[in-house]
Structures are given as C-alpha cells and as structure tokens.
Fold:
Amino acid sequence: MTIRWTYHSPDYSPSIRDIEPMMKFFRFFFILLISFSINYSSGQDKDSLRQNIKIEGYSPLVFSLSALYGNRQTDQFSHTIGFNAGSAINSTAITLPFSFAVLGNNFINDVKKNQVSDHLLNKNAYEFSYDASAFCTWAQDSFLFHSKAVYGIDVSTGNFTSVRFTDAAFNIIFYGNSHYAGLTADFGGTKLYSYNYDRIGFSAQKKLGGINSSLEGGVKLSLLTIRNGLKLKLEHTTLFTEQNGEYLDAYYDFEYNQSDSANKGRFQSDGAGISVDLHCSWLNQIQTTRFSFYINNLGIAAWNKNTSTFSADSMIRFSGININNLLFSDTASFIHYTIDSLFKNTGTSEQHESKIFALPSTFSFLCSHSVSAKVLLNAGVSYRPYSDLLPLVFVKPQWILSKSCEIGIPFSAGGSSRYAIGFDAMITIKKQFQIIAGSANVLGILLPARTTSSSLFLQTSFQF
Amino acid sequence: MHKMSFPPLSISFLALTILVIALLSFSSCKKKLASHASWDTEVLTPLIQTTLTLDDLLADSLLETNADHSVSLVFSNQLYHTSLSEATFQIPDTTIKVSFSLETLNLSNQTITYVYSLGAMSQQLGYTGTLIILSNGLTITLPPITGITTPPNDVDASQFFQSADIESGSIDLTLENGLPLTMSSIVFQIKNKVDQQVITEETFTNLLPNTTQTKTIDLSGKHVEGTLVATIINMDIAGGTFTVDTSDAITMTMIANDIKVDSATAIFPQQNLIDNDNPTTYDLSGGAELNQFRMKSGTLTIIVSSSIQQKSHFEYLLPSVTNASGSSISIIQDLPPAPSGGTSGFTQSFDLAGYTFDLTGVNGMEHNTFYSHLIASIDSTGELVTISKADSIFIDYELSNIVPDYITGYVGQQIVNVGPSTTEFSAFRSIQGGTLALEDVDVNLSIKNGIGVEGRINFYNLTSINSSTGSQVMLTWDKLNQPLSIPPATDNPLIPSVTSFELNNSNSNINSLVSNLPDQLQYTLDIFLNPYGNSSNYHDFAYDSSELEATLDVNVPLAFIATDLILIDTLEFSLGNSEPGDATIKDGTFNLIAYNGFPISAAQQLFFYDAEFNLIDSLFNSVQTVAAGMLDNQCMVSGKTKTVLTITIDEAKMQRIRSAAKAIVISKFNTAVHPDCTFLKIFDDYSMDISLTGLFTFYTGY
Structure:
C-alpha cells in the first residue's frame, strides 16, 4: 500500500497561504478575463460603448453563482413558473473520485486516499448538498404593498452536509493511527452538520421608492422541516499513540447531536425551522452597475425532544480492555464491548432533549457591471460562516451571444473549495421559455483526480 | 477441597491467544447491500491488558498461603467411592406370590317343611284308605294299622342349593304328629333323588297326637342334592276312635344347622370368605436382617386374581407400609365373578416414594418381614353359584425399582472387593512431558464413612501411572495390606466418620508417587462391612446419600524445579464465518507484551487443526518464550522480565485460522536457574502483567 499522507504540526494554522496556488490560478484567469473583455469591448464603436447593456429587472433573491441571469428578467411578463435542481460537492481537499466513492458506498482504495492526501490542509472543508424546488412568481401592483412588487412562492427539498476536518482526522480515519505512532493527532475544530429539509417559502421583491428606483429590496420567509439531522463538534480533541501502541491518550471535548433516530420515513419530521432571505441592491442611473447584498438562509431549526446529545469533555488513557480474570473471561464479552461500557469509560453523557441550531447562512456581495453591449461582468464575494474556510471570491463574465443565448464562465476561489472554473448558459426560447444550466466547476471533466469540487445546476422556467 | 485441574500459565496464554484470534473475527451484522463506503485502515492500538496472579491462574480453593507467603497447592483426588445404592445394599426387583384359599364356606340355615296329610296318606293305604277318606267328617273307630308304607315323595330344596358337599354340619329332622292317632312307629328315609344316596333313615316311635320328635342328622362328608326323596318305609298307627279330618297331617321339618361345605352350588349367604394376616418375608443377601426401610423411590404393583364365581369384595391392607402421615397402603375393590374354570382380577400400582416398610412383622420381633391383611367377602345375591373351598384369591406383589432412602437393622456381613481398578488423577492431566521435582508433598488418605455400619478397609496396592512416559511408581507404605478400621457414622443427625492416614516422606514414597506426574492411579482394596457381626444389635443404618469414599488429600507446597515441563491442551476452536462486507481485520502484527514476575519461563505455541486433525497452521511463526522473572540470592523474584511475543498474521494465514476446528496449545515451562537456588517457591505476590497490542489492517466493512 502506497500511502502519501500529510501531516501538519500542531502550531500550523490555516490561512490564505493555504490556497496560494489557487489564488495564483485565479489571478491568472482574472487578468485573462479582463483583457479579453476589454479587447472585446474595444472592438465596438463609441456608440456601441455608450450603448452598454442595461441592467434591468429584479435580481434573484437567493445568491447563486450559476444563476446570475436574473438581470435579464424584465417586466414584459408578469408571471413565472419554474423548476430548479442542483447539486454540489465542494471541498478543499476531497477529490471527486473520493467523494463519489463515499457517496456511492464504494470501496475507497489507497489511490483515492492518496489523491486527497495531496491536498490536505491543516483545516479542510467538505460540503455536499442538493436541492430541488418548484417556484412561481408574479408581479402584482397591490398586494402587500400599494405599488408594484414581485411575489413568489417556492417549495423545495434537499440536503445539506458540511464537514470541517483536520488533516489528522482524515488520516486517522482513512489511513489509521499507525502512522501517528509516537505522535499526537489533533482533531480540534472538526465538525459536521448534516440534515435533510423540506421547505416552503414566500417572497416579495420591490423597487424601493418607485418603479424606477435604483434601490431594490426583497425578502423571503421560509418554513422548513428537518430530518436525519446530525451535528458534531470536536473541540480540543487529540489522540496520542504510543510508539509501540501500548497505550492511547485521548483528550476530547465534543458534542454530537442526532435527531430522532427512531423516526423513519420520507415524510418524517425531526424538527422545524424558520429562515429568512434578504436582499437589497442599488443600480446606478445609467443602469450599468449594480451592487447587490444578500443574506440567505438566516434562521434556526429546532430539533425535537427526541434528539440525542452525546457529549464529553475528558481524557482517557486506553491501555487495552482490562481483563480482570483472564482464565474465566469469555471471548464474546471481550469482543462485544458495549456502547454502554464505552460511554462509561469515556465519560460520555447522553441526553435526550430538543435542540436549536442555527441554519448555515450565506452572506454575499455582488457587483454586476455592464462592460459593453455584449458583456456583463459579475464579481463579488460570498461567505458561509459554517462551511467556508475562506470567503468565496468570484468573477463571472457573461457574454450575450444573442437574444436567446447567453453564457457565463465563473471563476472562483475559496469558500469550501479551492478554485473552480465553471460554465453555464441561459437559453431563451420564444421569449417565454428559459433554461439555465451549468456547473460551478468543470475542471473535474479534465482533471478529476485533482479537482475537489463539482456542481450541476438546472433551471427551467416559463414566463407568461 | 476441589478437584484440581492444573491450569498454570499455559492456560492463561491459551486464553490470551484465543482472545487475539477472536479479535480477528470482529464481525458486524451481515449485510447484503453496501450501506456505506468501506476502506482499509491501519490501526495501532492496545487491545487488552491484564495482570495475572496466582488467583487468576488457580482457583482460590486450590491455593493455600503459608505463613511465609509461599503458596501451597491443595486438592483432592477421589480414589474410591461407593454409596448405599451403588454397592453396599441393594433391593432387587421382587415378585412375591401369595394365594389365599377360602377359609369357610357356609350355607345358610334353611328350613324345609314337608307336610304329609291324612288324605294323602289314605290315598296310599288302599281299601282302608278309601274308607278313611269316605269317613271324612265322621267319627270312626280305626283298628291298629301296621306296615304302612308310602311311595317316595320329593322334597324340593333346590331353591337353596342344587348340591353341596358337606364339610360339617347337621340338620334337625322334626316330625310333628298332626293326626288324632298315635304313631307307634315311623321309619323315615331321606335320600338324594339323583344318585339315590341315602342321607338318613330315622325311626320315630310312639309319637303321640299333636306331639313332635326331633332327630339330629350329621351331614359331615355327605353329598346332598337339592332335590331329596322322602319315603316312609314303615309306619305303624295305633288304633282308636276319632273324627276323620283328611287335612290332618304329619309335618316333617328339616332345619339345617351351621352347614359348612367344601363346595356347593347354592345360594350363599353373605359371609367373609377370607379374613387373615399374611406375613411376607424378604430374602436379603449377606444375611441382612432389616427392621425398616424407607423408600426413596419404588413401585408396588399388586395383581389380584380370584376364582370365586361370585362377585366378591376385596379389602387389602398393608399395615406395615406407612407414609410420613401414618397412612398405610390399602385397596378396597370389588372383584367381579370369575368365569367357570377361570379367574377375574385387577392390577393396582402404588408409588412407594416416602413410604416406610416396617419389617418387624406382625409381632414386631421379626426382620425382613412385612405383613398384609386380607378380607374377601361375598354378599347374598339370591342366585345359585358354585363355590368351592378350592377357590382362591391370588395376590402377586411386585416390588420394582426399589431405592431405599434409609434402612435400619443389621445389614449383614459383606465383603466388597475392589480392583485392581484405575481412577483418573486430573491434577497433572495436561502435563505431557518433562520433569517436575517437588520439594515436599503431604498426602492424607482420608476415608469418609457415611454409612452407619462398622467396616474395615484393606489397601493392597496403589500405583501412580504416567501414561505419557509409561512410568509407574508403586506406593510403599507401612499400612498397606493391613486392615484399617472404619468407624460407623452416627445418626440423627448423620455425621460421617472420617479416618485419615498420613502419607509422608518418612512412612512412604509418596513424593515419588506424585512426582511421577501421574494421570492415573491404580488401586486394589477390599471393604468388609460388619466384620464383627451384628455388633450394633440391629442398629446399622444407611441413607441413600450415605457414601463410603477414599480420597487422597494432596498438599503440594509450590516449591519445585520444572524442567521442560510440557503441557498440552486440546480444545474446540471456531472463529465463525465472515461474509463479504463484514468488518474484519485482514492482517496484522500482534505483540504480546509480558512482564513476568514468576520464576518460570514459558515457551508457547498454538497449533490449528481442521476437523480431521490435519495441521493447518500455527499461531507463532516460531516458538517464542516468555522469560522468567529475575531471581535474587534468596531465590525470590526481584524484578519482572519483559518479553515481547510477536504474532504476524497475513490474510492467507487469517483464512487458514478461520477454517480451523481444533487447536492444541503446547507450553513448555522451566523454572529459572540461579546458582544459589534449587527448589523455587512461588509466593502469593508474584504476578505477570500482560498487554496485547495490535498493528493491523482493519477493513471497515460496508
């Protein structure tokens, strides 16, 4: 077995230098992009330059790097119905083959582990999520407001799984502790948050101060149920393996929550929550630049009283299971070391009570600028405090190839991934049918073993 | 004391290695479909730890700590054992047949009256008779008439019996003269109608009018038929004047008195046919004369048959057999009529558990004898039946599966010869080679007598046999071939007598006997019960739980020299089967780290075999030895010695071990060597710390 594993000394802390290669990559493409855009624009005449594409319509209420085409929505139609589906895998270290093996319940061989090991940082992130929704929006002059606003209702179902882990945690779990003989493995900061949800939301967006106002605001209130919830948080947790394995010293401070495990079935509800999405944007007078600010999924979920909470803040030296009477012990009792005895020996307490957890919120800032009549440049930063190691910095130029076809190439770095180059497109058919499809990272097609994120997004809508 | 199976360090290592191998059989629940991703991971971890002391190696009951904290091994090995039910006293299944003949057979005292009227008489007197008949109502004078005879007249008694062979008894024959004339002489004859046998012929004289005369007729030995013929052979009438009334008559009355018959076809009156006590005597071996035995278990089956052709009442009592509440066994039942020439009967069984047999007979002075009381009776049915004194009631007593719980009396003189017999000596059973020199051995031959009978035991031979080496050591002891008295146990409460005889180095070669590391002991002895006869005056006793046993109580101070002492144990072995997807250890290296504080080194190996005992593999790639603890000048362990035994198991080896069905553990022990030491004592604070660590590839399973 060929093992390449990464070990960082305990005093090593994560920083921007962890993604230095990404940043270089990102700078290279950003410069390339700007050059390309400028060159593309310089080919236009002055009139054309003055006729930069105007940013119109309402922004999407929820920030999504793959769905920044909302600027093309106009007031021509008052109703929209559609479907969204998307899934994403993001990690700073976990490569796609490894992720697919985990998600597909396959065997993880050493090759896959080594690919991950090459990318391990002191702190690492992994995220897997999917979401499917149906939505409708309509414009109404007087409903909640006395002036025109866009209202929307959507229902969705999905999963959110986010893991933050140390390199030691990965190595111990997937390589074993034998390589830490005489060393201390640090698990501190490792955490997990996973749940499935069903959500229904109601939104309203409105130009603030009049139909031609440069300010736009929106809010969506969602109610959700959660199931299969898991939450783990390891604080100051280390494992020392004696050189010859004669003992293990473990220091641990953890809390592990599991939502109602007895509650099974697709329509189970282990808890309920509420969230709000907020958005505001400012568009300049000539409608060439818009600044948008998003707060998405800000809320809480209350897991019901059957939630199990296991926690401990203790230390233990394990020198083997103590056999008091070797002659008369039966092997069965030795092997079947019970959960109860494990809890007792590790000082782990178990409680059953309801728990309230914050939902993983996202804070985003987006600047969209019309570079020319054919090019729109989006750039910004997005940050999810729970999942992201660093804020996600992105640039996404969009080219309007025709009235019915636009494409975008998002470049991003940070977040819960390292760097990504995506591709997406919007096709409009007969002005009413709209299809948006894309991926935030297509590098996996070319370099799967070196790629740690991938996503797929599809939206179909009909305006009338 | 306990039986001892010597379980020294080898067994501990055996247990440890089993744990190691069991670890390799980590298996989760069986899964058909992958439920999560799987991978291999290399784990380095301690698995188990323990500290072995003598208490862990040997049961507390086998250890005895001496004043200097050295330890002795104490154990018992039973040499001979017998109990009341096994050998000393047994009651075989017994069937006792008893027949009860009818004691008396009575006929009822019946009365038969025969009236012979003047008219009837006149019809048989010819002309004179005609004249008398014609004169009816007239007063006539009749001259004396002689030689009157009458033809035979039937006297019908068949409503009482048809025939009877009279054993004894009589009838009173009474003639009453109802005529107005004096009968000067009457000769009266009665005979059977069929065989014409004359029952009696009596002469009555001078029988005045309206007077009676009676004669008693002895019927003993006579056969009497139900229809008799009465004949007046001669009658003389004195003459006289009288008024003729043809209804006047001579009346003959026969009254039966206390008729006992040998047999009869008759209507029998209600009567007891049998009513007596009947003793039943056991014939017990060895001249035993018991007064009592209480049943632990057993069955009494009573089979009753009868040839009496009339329904009879059967009442059977066993006053000698009572339970704790004093109730005795009894049977009260009707016997149906036996068919002609056959028998009728019934069978009834009794669970004798808890019953006590009083064997002192009816008068309380006998032995081995219990008695029964039988009453057989018939009712008067009004029907004619044939009953003979030859008829009998037959009773079979079947005593089966008798297990006495307690006996008293005199059990007789019995000599039990035992041997040459062989008994297992388990203490060194696992030792298959090498030598063990013991500094000292103390053995007590303990004879425990739980039977209330004085005895004598005589040992002729005791030989230790080491089957592995073929070595035999015969005991030399000054008490061999000498009768050793065994006092009886005492009763209420039962206290066995215990007699001990010490065997030591001064009076025997017991050390050599034990150091031979025997796995068998061969012995020859005899036991003589009641060697002086009935010295207890019928106060011998024994309980079912009473035992007579000879035991060797061995005390071995753990001060010895072991040289290549090889212990071998065979055991069944199975790790079970694993299925694809089960979490398992695929391969690895396990280190058994021993800190040995015993002055003994131990070389270990474990061999695996299939069910046909074909060698599959061994646990260690080569024999590895746990070094002995370090000795000081006082021949005591001054420090523990660390030894690491490494067990390397690859996937192929793991599979081979999984297929094993049997395992043999072989351990070789040597005591530590020190120039100042010979025999090494084991002290109670000696211990060995053992930990097991593993560096292995763990497959997480799915």
Q: What stands out?
A: Chain B touches chain A through 42 residues (CB under 8 Å). The longest helix of chain B spans residues 9-24. Helices of chain B lie at 9-24, 54-57, 84-88, 118-123, 126-134, 510-515, 651-658. Chain B has seven helices and 46 strands.
